[in-house]
């Protein structure tokens, strides 16, 4: 019988490097969240940014 190991890498999309990863014998959310906690703990000085979203509130939408 073959065994599987599930690999959950966390990649920095800017630099392309793998920041951390977790492995598990079953695909469970717990292991992915553990990896996310490791990323946040290992990168305290790293600034996380979001892309700008357009303001689409009704007062800014042109009406015919």
Give your account of this protein's structure:
It is built from 1 helix and 2 strands. It is of the alpha+beta class. The chain has one domain. It has a two-stranded antiparallel sheet with strand order 1-2. A hairpin with a 6-residue loop joins strand 1 and strand 2. The longest helix has 14 residues.
Brief digest:
The protein is of the alpha+beta class.
Give me the secondary-structure topology.
Elements: E1 6-11, E2 18-24, H1 29-42
Antiparallel strand pairs: 1-2
Helix/strand order, N-terminal first: EEH
Span between N and C termini?
66 Å
Largest sheet: 2 strands, antiparallel
Q: Roughly how much helix do the residues carry, as a percent range?
A: 10-25%
Walk across the major sheet and give the strand order. 1-2
Helical region count? 1
Number of domains: 1
Q: Globular, elongated, flat, extended or rod-shaped: what is the shape?
A: elongated
Structural class: alpha+beta
Number of DSSP strand runs: 2
What structural keywords apply?
2 strands, alpha+beta, 1 helix, 64 residues, two-stranded antiparallel ribbon, elongated
């Amino acid at each position: 019988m073959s065994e599987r190991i599930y690999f959950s890498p966390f990649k920095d999309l800017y630099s392309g490097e793998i920041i951390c990863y977790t492995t598990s014998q079953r695909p469970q959310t717990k292991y992915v969240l553990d990896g996310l906690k490791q990323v946040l703990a290992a990168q305290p000085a790293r600034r996380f940014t979001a892309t700008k979203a357009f303001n689409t509130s009704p007062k800014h939408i042109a009406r015919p």
